Amino acid sequence: MDSNLYTTTATIQHSIPTASYFSISTGKKIRSVSRLDHSSPGELKFQKQVSSVFNSLSSENDVQLKPRPRPKPSCRPRLAPVLDYGSEEDAIKAAADVATSSSQLHHHHHHHHSSILCAQIEKLVLFGKYREALELFDFLRFRGNFSHVAFRSVIYDKLVSACVVLRSIHDVKSVFQHMVETGFEFDQYMWNRVLLMHVKCGMMVDADFLFDEMPRRNESSWNIMISGLVDSGRYAEAFHTFLLMWESEDSYEAGTRIFTHIICTTAALELLPSGRQLHSCVLKLGLSQHAHVSNALIDMYCKCGCIEEAWWVFAEMPEKTVVAWNTIIYGYALNGHSEEALEVYYEMRDSGTAKMDHFTYSIILRIFSRLASSESVRQTHASLIRNGFAADIVASTSLIDFYGKWGRMNYARNVFDGMPYKNIISWNALIGGYRNHGRGKEAIQAFEQMILERMVPNHVTFLSLLGACSGSAGLGSSGWEFFRAMSRQHNMKPRAMHYACMVEIMAGRDGLLDEAYYFIKNAPFKPTANMWGALLTACRFHGNVEVGKIAAEKLFEIAPWKIGDYIVLLNIYINSGRLDEANKVLEVMNRRGLKIPRPCSWIEIKREPHMFEFNDRSHPESDRVYGEIDRLMRLLGKFGYVNPLEKIKQKLKPLVPDNDSLGDEEKGGGSRRYHSEKLAVGLGLISTSKSGSLQVVQRHRMCTDCHKVIKLIALITGRVITLRDSSRFHHFQDGDCSCGDYW
DNA sequence: TTAGGGTTAG
């Protein structure tokens, strides 16, 4: 192996694409792998069939793939040492010794000492002291006796682990160079490990080279390479490499693992045709009943929106594992079939074929959260404790998330405080809860506590934190501090969503629309829909037509199918009396075949859902519901409430269809208006105990009049009312809303 | 022996 590897390839490293859309256009062969003749003509034909699908993928037909988020950094729990390698203190001391003893180690007679230190590398890695291990390696390499002597295989193995955890390019080079220079004898395992550390550190050019040059490959080598290509966004090449393996002499190696991986890739990319093709591959190879492969197929079909086919694969499984159940349940939920998802979940419980695990809890809690099903969550919470998941990090975090979303922060806090171990996601759920609840100061306090406990924040933490600052008055400057601290103290590049939060802070609270506009323009990357969306919302709030128009146009370019943006722009025009321009927007929507969906709200009472539309009288309790609302509206008059409709209803009559599809107060339609959210709240008030809180869900953005009215209703009735609309949660309590009247 | 793979909480 050529030790000059790095000098030849260093210039083109890290070519990870950052374009918002990754277009597969490279049809060229990436690396040459000798092709073996295949004995069975049927097999060959089959392979050609597969190849043609992938080739069509990589031809220039402008296949546009949605970019997938980069894989999350794993949040590994802090493990207590279980192996008998001496105490952690010893290992730390050894690391400390490196510094102090380095001066004494210049001479040959310290060889024995060096060997001991060499063994310390192993311990340091086992105790998670990766940096120290690599420093020790450096020391031994340059100043100890190992400049020309190779380590034992197991030492390199541990050094590889350290490099992978630390993602350190420098150390990868150093370790590999040492192996090459000292003439280390690589076996298949170590070749794969070396490949892995290059891949994991994003050194894909070197990884390519290594992969081509390694004397032999096994399934693991192919798998590492393919996963590396996927991770660096080179999806076309990942498929291509899979094909090469398929056609190479290694093809007999293609087992369940590699198929699992490549199917998952198609799932992530939502490439249904390729997924189907792979499905037929595994059917042919007789691997389709393998549990992991089936799970991957179920997941793939779910992600591609083919829930029936997913169910078909699931039904064919001889033994349904808990992962399979979880995948199919989550798949139903993913495709918007929350109720069916729950039915499958009940089926799982009744079938007794698999015991539910913490993921099952997590998934169904998430479904209940969508359904605002607090009664079910109470039962699930109890069942979770009964079944010994009270201390489980995944299940508990899902509970915190639920309570944090629906405004039960004392519950969330109780769960959180009772957790024996917390990870960053648990903390984020807590901070996010305070954010949702409009409790910015407490969000910041929780963050500070987290830092004190030496938990390392990630980008989601800052998302919650910045959101908390934009959601509470007077925290704008804190928001700026956190935004700056991200890169200065926490070594993190703010992403588009963080910029969007800052836009909300600037434009939303402080009304600095122009500043926000230039902030977006000067962002170090192409502005995203989130950023323009934040600006557009701010323009609606402050009634700024000019900037709003610009933001809306950008949004229509990026995502012309998103109806919500058109509605906000319509509202901006209507509010400022520019009805001609509003009509133009409606025309554009018409031309593009976009229909404003009928707004509806719903509320769950005693585990039964109840849905309402505008002026809806289909509910059996309609008379009582309308009576209650009328009674409250009369009461509100005494609080100085004036129906804003009176002012503008005349001029709007010709414009707006006869439902309240604009979801805002500018809507005409007579003096008595019963928006769906008011009806849902009305039913909640008459059918629950006087102190009970209400949870309402709706897909459209709440109108300012309903917002005002529900705030007053919460004040008069003393209820806590939580409503999730298309943009956020609103917690009405004591005449106030957690959104601080900005949404 | 050791790696590499599947569902998943923000």
UniProtKB/TrEMBL annotation:
GO terms, biological process: RNA modification
Name of the molecule in the record: Pentatricopeptide repeat-containing protein
Domain DYW residue range list: 674-743
Keyword field contains Transit peptide: yes
PROSITE patterns on file: PPR
Each PPR repeat, start to end: 218-248, 290-320, 321-355, 423-457, 562-596
PANTHER family xref list: PENTATRICOPEPTIDE REPEAT SUPERFAMILY PROTEIN, PENTATRICOPEPTIDE REPEAT-CONTAINING PROTEIN
Organism (species): Zostera marina (Eelgrass)
Keywords from the named record: Repeat, Transit peptide
Stored Gene3D superfamilies: Tetratricopeptide repeat domain
